Amino acid sequence: MHNGLTNETTFQHKEKKFVLHPLAPFKVFKDQIQMKKLRDDERKEESMCKELGEQAPNACIHEEGESSAPPKVTQKEKNLSKETLLCK
Is 77 inside any structural domain? Predict the structure, then answer.
């Protein structure tokens, strides 16, 4: 259920009530900058792997194929989930 006055979304899951609060504009901006940086880094890594792949096959090992372990959660993601999802 959405509360238009406070711009919060409330829902229940497994008998627990969750309230989603909106992010402040400066936090959205910081998050967008970080996502852009990560995308740029991934593109650079991909291009390097392609260049190395032409010179030496099997030179780049992609993270997806290394193991079946669950993906690592960064400290930023942990903090973001604490800030945006509050349980009541």
Answer: no
Number of domains in the chain: 1
For residues 23 and 85, the answer to whether their CB atoms sit within 8 Å is no
3-state secondary structure of 57: coil
**Residue matched to tokens 């238009």:** 4
CB distance 8 to 19 below 8 Å: yes
Query: What is the domain extent for residue 31?
Result: 25-60
Which residue shows structure tokens 């509050």?
Answer: 86
Considering the domain boundaries, does residue 36 fall inside one?
Answer: yes
Query: Terminal CA-to-CA distance of the chain, rounded, Å?
Result: 15
Name the pTM for this structure: 0.44
Query: What is residue 32's predicted lDDT score, i.e. its pLDDT?
Result: 94
Evaluate whether residue 69 is within a structural domain: no
pLDDT in tens, 46-81: 888 887 766 555 555 555 544 445 556 666 666 665
